[in-house]
Amino acid sequence: MSAPHCIANPPKLCSSYGAGQVQQLGGLNCYVSGSLDSKLAVLLVSDVFGYEATNLRKLADKIGGAEFYVVVPDFFHGDPYVENGAKPIGVWLKDHVVDNVSKDAKVVIEDLKAGGVTKVGIGGVCSGGKTAVDLAKIPCVEAAVLLHPAFVTLDDIQGVKVPISVLGAENDETTPPKVVKQFEIALQSKAGVDSLVKIFAGVTHGWTVRYDEDDKVAVKAAEEAHQDMLKWFIKHLY
Prior knowledge:
Blueprint: H1 4-7, E1 21-25, E2 28-34, E3 40-45, H2 54-64, E4 69-73, H3 89-95, H4 98-114, E5 119-125, H5 128-137, E6 143-147, H6 154-158, E7 164-171, H7 177-188, E8 195-204, H8 216-237
Parallel strand pairs: 3-4, 3-5, 5-6, 6-7, 7-8
Antiparallel strand pairs: 1-2, 2-4
């Protein structure tokens, strides 16, 4: 079951938003942005609200501005979670289990690499963090960033084989700071795996993509997290 923070403050959605375009990859509709001929790709895995979230697409455009080929797939096949919709979150999650999202993500990555991409980074938001860590354990990506992750366990973190950054929130019922600190300790003990773990003060779960645009403090914290993510991918994919 998802914690309340996972579905709080739903984002704005817009199917036509962003500087990029929607195209098919791995059999899924994907919002793509940035340098589409780049050999370096970043896959962004959304939270339960899906790939049409405007702030998520803003983030994709921002990363794409650094010459990455950025892909945000519709892992929910046109069925994102809708607040007060027909499906309560528990029912919705059963219809969209993380294992299936991770399988679909692998297919998208295979499609990217078949098209000439040589390195892939993955960024996971909330429940998307579970998919990101799953792929970092195989590994079929070269770097990972988890943004206020959900469903990620200490065992997951201990199995990571590629450079990983975990960006957590001070006020988070889903993955509280004490758990993020456990992740940090586990990663520091892994020789040969670069890591960065950071807890952002004064913010809540979801702040990187579900911030209030009129809240200057929230916007500033989100932008800092976005820059941390971008720097991580530049460091480990370039």
